[in-house]
Design goal:
alpha/beta, Rossmann fold, Hypothetical Protein Yjia, Chain: A,domain 2, seven-stranded parallel β-sheet, five-stranded antiparallel β-sheet, 12 strands, 24% strand, globular, binds guanosine-5'-triphosphate, hydrolase, P-loop_NTPase, nucleotide-binding
Length: 346
């Protein structure tokens, strides 16, 4: 490695589909980073910053709150010039410059445009992509979330003879895997050995080059495995094919997001039942946010991935903080916003 590349600040890009466990993995990484001075860029597709809030509340000395930049409301792959590069420059200019920068992309972001940005003159002499880590929701892969729907393909073939209308989820999932230096097969706790082996085969079929796959539960993997891969991915773009290589620009037209503000909640379990039913009825991909329960001093963090929900009180409402309930909903284009709002407000 040359002297110049030695002096570059290594950056790790954490990618992975909606709800795969990126924030959970990064929380764990912060806790095991062993005093290394870190900074974070956290990107959300929906316009309520939930992940940044979760990570800020970790209270880890080596990653103070002001070293965490949140870029909500869209995918950073589309706002590289306006948001991502300025955020990186801002972190590099901090008086206590970070030793390593971790970037959590939104679950719908394509990692390749971000890796490409590391070749921009404004930053190329100062940063390098230490590695792209793709977090995979093992349970979602095993359930066929990212596979083409054979029925739909058949229907389209009969309608217009076209066979190229892939599942849009598959396209995002594959783009993320194809860019990876390390694949973290997460949610292993939800799968048996044969399902895990099946998901591993699926990953190997998708990624033509040899990429290490490690199994995890709750993103528990030592920081030493994640940081220091030394990939310099920005010098190696040709090995990372994307479904969007031929396009100047891409969009995320296949997906929709909106925010639901809820009235006073009396009881958490009843809310979760309602959310689960709405997620099933409307095929919602992701729901997350904070909820105020009447009479409770703590706020409830609600997380839904497909129809799987979890919730816990994550911290007390601060003095003067508005106690409101807001959830981000993400799904494929055509989500029935009115129907979902009605179901949740009813
Ligand atoms: N059972 C199980 N649940 C997990 C695991 N890892 C994460 N989760 C849960 O999955 C949900 C989503 O986890 P996150 O870490 O927020 O996922 P994410 O990839 O950051 O989500 P987005 O940023 O919205 O794309 C949360 O409820 C987590 O507690 C795991 O290994 N096993």
């Amino acid at each position: 490695m040359s002297l110049a590349s030695n002096s570059k600040v290594p950056c790790t890009i954490v990618t992975g589909f909606l709800g795969a466990g990126k924030t959970t993995l990064i929380r764990n990484l912060l806790a095991t980073a062993g005093g290394r001075r870190l900074a974070l860029i956290v990107n959300e597709f929906g316009d309520v910053g939930v992940d940044g809030d979760i990570l800020r509340s970790c209270g880890i000395d080596s990653c103070p709150e002001d070293a965490i930049v949140e870029l909500a409301n869209g995918c950073i792959c589309c706002t590289v010039a306006d948001d991502f590069v300025p955020a990186l420059e801002m972190l590099l200019a901090r008086p206590n410059a970070p030793e390593h920068i971790v970037i959590e992309t939104s679950g719908l972001a394509l990692p390749k445009p971000l890796v490409k940005a590391f070749n921009w003159p404004a930053i190329r002499s100062r940063v390098t992509v230490d590695g792209v880590i793709a977090v995979v929701d093992g349970a979602a892969v095993a359930a066929g979330r990212f596979a083409d729907d054979p029925e739909e393909l058949k229907r389209q073939a009969e309608a217009d003879g076209a066979l190229d209308h892939d599942n849009p989820l598959e396209e995002v999932y594959e783009d993320q895997l194809l860019c990876a230096d390390l694949v973290v097969l997460n949610k292993a706790d939800l799968l048996g050995e044969s399902e895990l082996a099946g998901v591993e085969r699926d990953i190997e079929r998708t990624v033509p080059r040899a990429v290490k796959v490690v199994r995890t539960s709750e993103g528990r993997i030592d920081a030493a495995v994640l940081l220091g891969l030394g990939a310099a991915a920005e010098d190696d773009l040709a090995a990372r094919p994307s479904h969007h290589d031929a396009e100047e620009e891409h969009d995320h037209d296949d997906f929709d997001t909106f925010v639901v503000d809820l009235p006073a909640i009396l009881e958490a379990d009843a809310l979760i039942s309602k959310l689960r039913k709405a997620a099933e009825d409307h095929d919602i991909l992701r729901i997350k946010g904070f909820v105020a329960i009447e009479g409770k001093p703590m706020r409830l963090l609600v997380q839904g991935v497909g129809a799987r929900f979890s919730q816990h009180f994550d911290r007390a409402w601060a003095v003067g903080e508005a106690r409101s309930s807001r959830l981000v909903v993400i799904g494929e284009k055509g989500l029935d916003q009115d129907g979902i709002r009605k179901a949740l407000n009813g």
